[in-house]
Amino acid sequence: MKDILVLGIESSCDETSAAVVKNGREVLSNVINSQIKIHEKFGGVVPEIASRSHTEVINLVVKQALEQANVTLDEIDAIAPTYGPGLVGALLVGVSYAKGLSFATGKTLVGVNHIEGHIAANYITYKDLKPPFICLIISGGHTHLVNIKSYTEFEILGKTKDDAVGEAFDKVARVVGLGYPGGPKVDELAKKGIPNIELPRTHINDLNFSFSGIKTAILNLYHKNPETNKADLCASFEKNVAEVLVKNSLKALKQTESKKIALAGGVSANSYIRAEFSKLEEMGIKVYYPELKLCTDNAAMIASAGFYNLINGKKSNLNLNAVPNLKIDKDIEK
Questions:
Q1: For the chain, which terminus, N or C, has the lower number of CB atoms within 10 Å?
Q2: What pLDDT, in 10s, does the model give residues 158-177?
Q3: Rounded to whole angstroms, how far apart are CA atoms 141 and 165?
């Protein structure tokens, strides 16, 4: 069987990335140009600045990805850009660039759902991982429990009703003065604290999540008691969130009779959450995590998902457009 090379392009938020992946599993290159330093002074991502930054570097990033993989565009079989969800202006930069390349070279265009990309990061880390399994996607914009029925078939079992878990991390970081990006900074400070502060847990009967209550509780608590130990507060927040994530994941595993769960998304890099999920191994459940560099936004995961779309006949045409609110369980005309 001929090897299939996919050029992935990711520009959904504040990372401009291009990667070449072979057969969906082997990363030949994964170039990431991060905008964190640019947005840090604003305390979060500014969409207009993100779009402009993508435009300035995308050509160079793609060129570097091809050079590092030691391949030419002629050797590429498909071009796979993220077309949603994400910031519409940022998405358009990657989609437009990919469409231009596809038109100029005649290479197959394969639009990729960003959330599917996060799931596929696990296929790169674990060469033997195959569906079906449960995936918990936890990031700045998403908190989803998904039944991965096949490489291209997904069923949402539960999702957040308000804030995504990564959004809650960022807001807690802002409240206690840690700055942006909040997730890694909360994780680091929590290691120095004790989870001794009682915080509310939102109980929902189904597999959905809610994190606005705990965020508001921390905001009120800290404003009323500014002398509260920040490390203890971060440790208590992490413990609370991890318990909710594990509880719902166990319910999803039982409901689907699955013994495999994968984590995905930026928050899956959190050391405490990883440690709590590792305990499920004692119950006979196999737990998967992407390697740390594949947890945050990158084009290797997009190229991997693009490969599975390609071999399952899910190709796009030059009418492909950015879909900022794209859902993982809904196919749209591409």
A1: N
A2: 999 998 999 899 889 988 88
A3: 8
User: What H or E segment, with its residue span, contains residue 73?
Assistant: none
Residue 329, domain member (yes or no): no
Residue (of 172, 244, 169) closest to 208 by Cα position: 244
pLDDT digits (tens, 9 = 90+) for 108-132: 999 999 999 999 999 999 999 999 9
Q: What is the pLDDT of residues 254-312, one digit of tens each?
A: 999 999 999 999 999 999 999 999 999 999 999 999 999 999 999 999 999 999 999 99
What domain range is 63 assigned to? 5-118+295-311
Distances, alpha carbon 69 to alpha carbons 203, 303, 311, in Å? 48, 13, 22
Number of structural domains (the chain) is 2
Residue type, 146: V
Give yes or no for a contact between 213 and 94, defined as CB atoms under 8 angstroms apart: no
Distance of alpha carbon 145 from alpha carbon 208, whole angstroms: 8
Three-state DSSP state, 14: coil
C-alpha closest to that of 310 among 152, 155, 154: 152
| Burial of 220: CB neighbours in 10 Å, binned 0-12, 13-18, 19+ | exposed
CATH number at residue 189: 3.30.420.40
The enclosing H or E element of 155 equals strand 153-159
Q: What predicted TM-score, i.e. pTM, was given to this entire model?
A: 0.92
User: Going by DSSP bridges, is the β-strand pair 26-34/15-22 parallel, antiparallel, or unpaired?
Assistant: antiparallel
